[in-house]
Amino acid sequence: MLREEAQLVSKDVFSQDRSCAQLIALRDGFGKGVVRAGEKNPNVMVICADLSESTRSLWFKEKFPERFLQIGVAEQNMAAVASGLAAVGKIPFIASYAMFSPGRNWEQIRTTICYNNQNVKIAGAHAGISVGPDGATHQAIEDVAITRPIANMTVIIPADAIEAEKATFAAAQIDGPVYIRYAREKTPVITTERTPFEIGRAEVYYDGTDVALVASGPLVYEALRAAYILKEKGISARVINNHTVKPIDEKTIAQAAQECGAIVTAEEHQVQGGMGSAVAEIVVKTHAVPMEFVGVQNRFGESGPPDLLMDKFGLRDSNIVEAAQKAIKRKKRPA
Amino acid sequence: MAYVHDEKLKKLEETAATIRSDTIESVIIAKSGHIAGPLDMADVFTAMYFHVLKHDPKNPLWEERDRLVLSNGHIVPVQYAALAHAGYFPVEELKTLRQFGTRLQGHPHRPTLPGLETTSGPLGSGLSQAVGMALGFKMDGKSNQVYCLMSDAEQETGNIWEAVMLAGKHKLDNLTGIIDRNNIQIDGMTEDIMPLEPLREKYEAFNWHVLDVDGHNIREIIEACEEARAIYEKPVLIIAHTIAGKGVDFMEFKYEWHSKPFTPEEAKEALHELRTLGGKIQSEHQ
Fold first, then answer.
1. Looking at A237-241, B107-111, B230-234, B245-249, which range is the least confident one?
2. pLDDT confidence band for B162 (50 / 70 / 90)
3. B72 part of contact set with chain A, CB < 8 Å
4. Which residues of chain A approach chain B closer than 8 Å at the C-beta?
5. So what's the pLDDT on residue A144?
6. Is B286's pLDDT higher than 90?
7. Closest CA in chain B for residue A78
8. A-chain residues within 8 Å CB-CB of B163?
């Protein structure tokens, strides 16, 4: 059942019809979070590459015009300029679509921000296939794979708009490079202001012992729905919101592997090199148990309504249920 | 910065000669590393660390200091030699260049060595970082100057022009770029590989003020930096015309020496020539 201390929204959101959920876009969480961070610290600033409205950087610009830098369509410049600003004491958030930043400017991020260890925050908007009509060129589904292996980097995938706001604010409070990915489309709100959030700590939202569903981003909602469906089938699933891919919460994952004996990961990203791969690294070196991976399966996205794309790419509660049953079947039976 | 008297100039030229020979010695010991660029920028680095920059080697993180950003990180051996002679770390440490466990990495890594302002190597992103620093100082109403040393070949990257455009947009008169115009790059002469000219007009078109200097004339370099500080509401570019491999006869003007290692005989000859050069400067001024 839902953990009380997680302080999530009503369980109806997960057990009843999808229409019960309130929908807010994660990017709105960025917009609000970065304004809050700016209110707290006068060194926080935002740099945007000609996408201020759609990344919600505009909200910061309206509040703090003197701390907003419009850099034009120049993502490589954006990353390295941010490094220079951080070198003189600023805390820059660089905001663009994840496809362009960290997509196009990966080397500048690696050399001038991470290796140089400068305090820059990378806000990657429009991550995932739920970007919709723009199609594959604008749907970043490899961004976690390219940011996680860079030393000094922290990588966060917030689950909903409220968590996105908390993650953005929290990123400004730690010293060092952080990458946060945000989805474009409105997605269900599952957490509340009271839900705990701490960078580097995965949260168990639903208790269970037969299988652990480790999810991130908007797929946490799908995993919670899957837990209710599995319950009807007599399967007890644990749901974990693994929002911080790096540094990953080894303890919570190892414990889930040991106590549940099977794991399903779920994310809106390629399964190669995604959050699931990070979980697998922990599982195989602690308690090796069967795993299944729900995510984009080695293909590009495409144009279409976000809802239909999520169905087509197999990123729904039903896909997680299926994967859970498969993983449980693969468990070793006691001799 | 004050006027350079003849006596001071002579001292600077001697320092440049020492920095040249220490640079080449460190590269010889390392058995790898670039040579031509470091040699031709010895005079610029000397002018910067021994006259132009406001800095304090005993307090590398002094808030009031000017910032020197090295964009083409591969010429860092000459910066290491300049930093050591300026007092940032022991001159003896130059012998550890590129060795296991050294602070003197093959390409500069800011967090490990005092005096370095950035981390560089991959070409084309130093000017962006310098622009970021200059913008930050402007935002805070501070008067620190930012200098960015670049190679000519890295003007072939797109990233440079993104930074050039931004500096022009914000009229960063606290920023001075210096290009080592030695005309060579790994595969040949710049004008064959990818023509850069008219370089001056290109920067001017982006609202920069451009000065040309003899990159081996320390007085000219210093005077150009002084003029740059007087320019209002425009970033300044100094094109330092240099001779690749300057100071070693058999290397001068030859692109092959961009990053080729010495044979032991070549090493001996190069060192001998550079040490004699030091003596020549003394006698010329006497």
1. B245-249
2. very high
3. no
4. 66-67, 69, 71-72, 74, 76-77, 79-90, 92, 107-108, 111-112, 115-117
5. 98
6. no
7. B128
8. 77, 80-81
Contact at CB, A86 and B132, closer than 8 angstroms = yes
HSE, side-chain direction, 13 A CA sphere, residue B278: 15
Q: What single string gives the DSSP state of each residue in B242-286?
A: --TTTT-TTTTT-GGGSSPPPPHHHHHHHHHHHHHHHHHHHHHH-
The pTM score is: 0.95
ipTM of the complex: 0.94
Question: Considering only CA atoms, which of A269, A309, A314 is closest in space to residue A179?
Answer: A269
Domains and CATH numbers, chain B: 6-285 (3.40.50.970)
Residue A223 lies in a domain: yes
Put simply, whether B137 touches A (Cβ < 8 Å) is: yes
- List the catalytic residue out of A39, A53, A62, A75: A75
Last residue of a domain, one of A163, A188, A213: A188
Structural domains in chain A (count): 2
Q: Which of A64, A77, A114 would best serve as a mutation to test chain B binding (most B beta carbons within 10 A)?
A: A77
* Residues spanned by the domain of A237: 4-21+198-329
User: Does the structure show a pLDDT above 60 at B197?
Assistant: yes
Q: Where are the alpha helices (DSSP H) in chain B?
A: 6-30, 36-40, 42-47, 76-86, 126-139, 158-169, 190-193, 199-205, 218-230, 264-285
